[in-house]
Structures are given as C-alpha cells and as structure tokens.
Specification:
- The protein has 209 residues and is of the alpha/beta class.
- The protein is built from six helices and 15 strands.
- Helices cover 31% and strands 31% of the residues.
- The strands form four sheets. Strands 1, 4, 5, 6, 7, 8, 10 and 12 form an eight-stranded mixed β-sheet that branches. A three-stranded parallel β-sheet has the order 9-11-13. A two-stranded antiparallel ribbon has the order 2-3.
- A hairpin with a 6-residue loop joins strand 6 and strand 7.
- Helix 1 packs antiparallel against helix 2 and helix 2 packs across helix 3.
- The protein is globular.
Length: 209
C-alpha cells in the first residue's frame, strides 16, 4: 500500500491551525499555504541523492555534498494546487512546473482532464503532485493516472489536509506512491468536503467566495 507520511512538525501544525480558521483572510491564507508548502518540501525532498564534491573555502579545501543533478517536477492540480507551487519552488528553484486541470463529470461523477501541460522529459523526472485537499481522492488518483500514461515513473502526492476516504482511494488505485500530508481529518460530509477541514481551498486562496 502507498505510504502515508503525516508531518507533525510544530511550525507546520501551527500554520495549519491558522489556515483552518474561517477568519483568516485571503492574503494571509495565501501566504500561509506558501509557507506550509515550503516547510513540507523539506520532508518530501529528504531522499534526494547527493554527490561528493570539493570546494575551496577561505580557509582551505573542504569535502562537501550537493544534489546529484536529479531532475524534479512539480505538478499542481488546478486550481487550488497553484497555491502550493511558490513554496515548493523557493526551496528547489530549478524544478520544472507542469499543470493538470480536472473537472468532475456531472453524470458519471468521474474526473475529466481539460488541460495538461507537462515538461517534455517527464519520464526522467521525480514528480511532486500538489493539491491542498485530498477529499474523495478522485482528482488526485486521476492526475497520477494521467501522469503514468505519459511515462512518469516516480511520483509523490503532497496535500495539506486529507480525509481517510481520499487516502484509501489513492492507495487502492496507486499503491506505489508516497502520500505526504499535514493532517488526516475525520471524514467527508455529504457534499464531499473534508470535516473539519478548512472549507474550499481554491475559494479561500483566490477570494472567489
């Protein structure tokens, strides 16, 4: 089964509390999501390979380590996933960014792709799929499926808050990926929103509600 990593660092939990608060405005919400994404990226990128190099310091030569040229990609699920991109790229500015747009078919209730723009060498990159909320898991599972169909081999999923139902669906359909979250909440309500969650992440990021 896909591994689930819940990040309990105090800074992550503190900022998560602030974005849950319904009184947090758009500007602060947006900034907090970016900060949370940066903090989570430290753990997500923990297994990046290193290579040994020699550098000249003001005091002499030193044997040091640098990331060994690993190709990385960040794939936000539109539209709420856009809020997590800047935090991730601040830590890894050389990562390429692709985009996947999905909507739910009103008849079948299944995700349908309406936009996809990815780095051309996607099969050679380690990909991070980002979306603040892992609710039903439909969009995340579909996004991973679309990436695999295009040749992606190494994929991680990063969300701020997840519902058990969403985790279960991703694990069922993609048991080969790691899932990183800041919290696993109680459940979904009858409208597919995470409870207690934080409401609609896209609306709160972009001030559309």
């Amino acid at each position: 089964m896909a591994n689930v990593h819940v990040m309990d660092h105090p800074l992550i939990q503190h900022k998560l509390t602030l974005i849950r608060d319904k009184e947090t405005g758009v500007k602060e919400f947006r900034e907090l999501v970016e900060e949370l994404s940066l903090l989570m990226a430290y753990e997500v990128y923990r297994d990046l390979p290193l290579k040994e190099i020699e550098v000249e310091t003001p005091m002499g030569k030193a044997t040091c380590y640098t990331i060994s040229g690993k190709k990385l990609g960040i794939i936000p699920i539109l539209r709420a996933g856009l809020g997590m991109v800047d935090g991730m790229t601040k830590l890894i500015p050389t990562a390429k960014v692709g985009h996947i747009g999905l909507y739910r078919d009103p008849d079948t209730l299944e995700p349908v792709e309406y936009y996809c723009k990815l780095p051309p060498d996607i099969s050679e990159r380690d990909l991070i799929v980002v979306d603040p909320m892992l609710a039903t898991g439909g969009s995340a599972a579909a996004a991973v499926c679309f990436l695999k169909q295009r040749g992606a081999k190494n994929i991680k999923l990063v969300c701020l808050i997840a519902a058990p139902e969403g985790i279960a669906r991703v694990q069922k359909e993609h048991d080969d990926i790691d899932i990183f979250v800041a919290a696993v909440d109680e459940k979904l309500n009858s409208h597919g929103y995470i409870v207690p969650g934080l409401g609609d992440a896209g609306d709160r990021l972009f001030g559309t509600k």
